């Protein structure tokens, strides 16, 4: 999908249906002039339901339709006939979707399973018909319950991408190029910062027809956790990745410093991100000879395994896949 079609944040208004009225009908037919109460119950109002769909990966379908209203239930009628239950309004959403109350910002639901239904707003219950209220002291009740009103409200829907591996690095570190080489994804690639404005997903084909999903996240800059650059748009997507692949180019002035900045921005956004498995890849390594590689190895960060790769020259990519697969499994 194009960047303009990738939507990972939307605000919607939803309203469930009102329950139908119970009937206060009294039984009447030939030769029975004073029959008892036989009013039926009202039907349930329609729910507003969110359903996880593994075939979706964006909230673009909600961009131009943000109001969802369910119908009211049918009214009860004679002969204890119940009103019909209204149809539910079902909103499909991608896996990894979070639903928040727009007023309190409280997380209400997280949808991570395909086909899982979450009732966002319950429809109102139908009112009881008058036959429910018949008693020895009240043989012909002439009243019934009204239906219960539906509920409504504004909700914020956010998407956190579900991917096995998340690419973390400064703008122009070669993340999009790597994704385009080892997957069938076609991200936008250019030699200027912030080429990638929205996350891109690609499926990495591995040995024996196995695969895993990799996400190219827009580049981090210092201060991203405070919203600088595109930080506030993309950092939440990293939270869903089980493994983080840090990418730093071989021509970087200071690999240790870049790695520390990246790590610090993740820490400030969410300290739990540091609990994820991490791997460091030095990209654009085709410009290095053995002597330069040895020099760089002396300056590499401690506590993280490092590989030298080149997406353009196809160097070290199989070794990278092997390492990522072993970390994921």
TrEMBL record:
Cellular localization per UniProt: Cytoplasm
EC supergroup of this enzyme: hydrolase
Boundaries of every Obg domain copy: 4-162
The EC number(s) this enzyme carries: 3.6.5.-
A GO biological-process term: ribosome biogenesis
KW Nucleotide-binding (keyword) present: yes
Main location: cytoplasm
Chain sites annotated for binding Mg(2+): 176, 196
Keyword Metal-binding: yes
Entry GO CC: cytoplasm
Keywords tagged on the record: Cytoplasm, GTP-binding, Hydrolase, Magnesium, Metal-binding, Nucleotide-binding
GO MF, one annotated term: GTP binding
Cofactor (UniProt): Mg(2+)
Residues in OBG-type G domain copies: 163-329
UniProt-listed HAMAP family: GTPase_Obg
Family membership: Belongs to the TRAFAC class OBG-HflX-like GTPase superfamily. OBG GTPase family.
Subunit structure: Monomer.
Task of the protein: An essential GTPase which binds GTP, GDP and possibly (p)ppGpp with moderate affinity, with high nucleotide exchange rates and a fairly low GTP hydrolysis rate. Plays a role in control of the cell cycle, stress response, ribosome biogenesis and in those bacteria that undergo differentiation, in morphogenesis control.
Protein name: GTPase Obg
Source organism: Tenacibaculum aiptasiae
Protein's gene: obgE
């Amino acid at each position: 999908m194009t960047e303009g079609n990738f939507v990972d944040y939307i605000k919607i208004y939803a309203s469930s249906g009102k329950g139908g009225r119970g009937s206060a009908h009294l039984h009447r037919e030939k030769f029975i002039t004073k029959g008892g109460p036989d009013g039926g119950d009202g039907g349930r109002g329609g729910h507003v339901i969110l359903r996880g769909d593994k075939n979706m990966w964006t909230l673009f379908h909600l961009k131009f339709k943000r109001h969802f209203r369910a119908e009211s239930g049918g009214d009860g009628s004679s002969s204890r006939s119940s009103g019909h239950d209204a149809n539910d309004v079902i909103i499909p959403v991608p896996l990894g979707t979070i639903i928040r109350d727009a007023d309190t910002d409280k997380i209400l639901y997280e949808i991570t399973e395909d086909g899982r239904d979450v009732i966002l707003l319950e429809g109102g219950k139908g009112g009881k018909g008058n036959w429910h209220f018949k008693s020895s002291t009240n043989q012909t009740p002439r009243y019934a319950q009204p239906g219960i009103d539906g509920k409504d409200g504004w909700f914020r829907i956010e998407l956190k991408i579900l991917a096995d591996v998340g690419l973390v690095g400064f703008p122009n570190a070669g993340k999009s190029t790597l994704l385009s080489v080892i997957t069938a994804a076609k991200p936008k690639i250019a030699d200027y910062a912030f080429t990638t404005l929205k996350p891109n997903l690609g499926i990495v084909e591995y040995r024996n027809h196995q695969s895993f999903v990799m996400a190219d996240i827009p580049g981090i800059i210092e201060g991203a956790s405070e919203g600088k650059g595109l930080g506030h748009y993309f950092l939440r997507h990293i939270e869903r990745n089980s493994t983080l692949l840090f990418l730093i180019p071989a021509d970087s002035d200071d690999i240790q410093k870049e790695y520390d900045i990246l790590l610090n921005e993740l820490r400030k956004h969410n300290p739990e991100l540091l609990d994820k498995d991490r791997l460091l890849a030095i990209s654009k390594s085709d410009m290095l000879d053995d002597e330069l590689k040895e020099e760089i190895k002396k300056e590499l960060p401690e506590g993280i395994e490092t590989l030298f790769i080149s997406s353009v020259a196809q160097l070290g990519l199989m070794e990278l896949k092997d390492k990522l697969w072993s970390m994921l499994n």
